[in-house]
């Protein structure tokens, strides 16, 4: 491991150096998780262009005068706590720089197409021969083998192929029915989380054995794994589940319901909670009705029960329901817009919005990491970097290159 963090409070991964050759979301999300935990993350980008998401706007970060900068909000979401180095890996000199950085790193993350880095001598076999302790993580759409291995994979595509869209959205015969993707690139996000977990496991293995290893992460694998109970609903019955809107396949009532002035969510997870709901709703007889007394019967009779509940919930305001149900210990809540999320007192109390100084805009708002560690808390050391902002700094610190060598590399367009 390599120490570069000279602040007094160390992160859980202080001393770990990560070389981030990934772009878009899944790989950068994994690298950001490691960076939040204290790792030194060096983001290697293409000179003049960088990560594609730098241009995925509007919206863009605004400066103090309210004017758009060149920093896309999308890029800001997945690249804090990193330093940006621009290297042209199509040149021999650029390849040599990346190999030298990899030789001094603990982890490398990349999301090029299968075999894409081999022609540059930057594939896992080449770099792990150079540095046997290296943990090399590849993130692709379909993995390193199988008939689809060489296909490009994108989140939206994988949500469809991996089954998520077949269970998301309203049924075909309902208003607005049809398959629907999630509102964020959830497959990319969760692949980044699984990649982070795999890297942490590999670091622990290396601590015991001294050996690095190769990690093969595929978006399709992750999407399928994340279908969780819906997978098992199919595997145990042989019947593929369909779209149910906001209803739950295994629990009733567990969906949205109309109030007099909006909508609320009921998430009733057991029979005691249902009985308490019935009391608050002024229908205690429902809890004794054999069709509704147990969750299994409520699932079987959802077509009867749910309309009855909807006719009841519409008679009171959302806030009235929420206050009465919370007082009775019945899980419920509103459906918030994102502006309402950040105005919520619980969200504010948890500090889920942070701000960091930014070299272009003056400051940038960011979303805090949800990881809370008592002894090695997440720290926000660097804002998402400008393209190539740290090239000379990192190459001087890590490889010992002087100004003359850096000037030559810059003059040749390598950095």
TrEMBL record:
UniProt cross-references to InterPro entries, sorted A to Z: CoA-transferase_III_domain, CoA-Trfase_fam_III, CoA-Trfase_III_dom3_sf, CoA-Trfase_III_dom_1_sf
KW Amino-acid biosynthesis (keyword) present: no
GO molecular function, one term: CoA-transferase activity
Pfam families documented for this protein: CoA_transf_3 (PF02515)
Keywords on record: Transferase
PANTHER family per record: SUCCINATE--HYDROXYMETHYLGLUTARATE COA-TRANSFERASE
Name of the featured protein: Crotonobetainyl-CoA:carnitine CoA-transferase CaiB-like acyl-CoA transferase
Organism: Natronocella acetinitrilica
Lineage: Bacteria, Pseudomonadati, Pseudomonadota, Gammaproteobacteria, Chromatiales
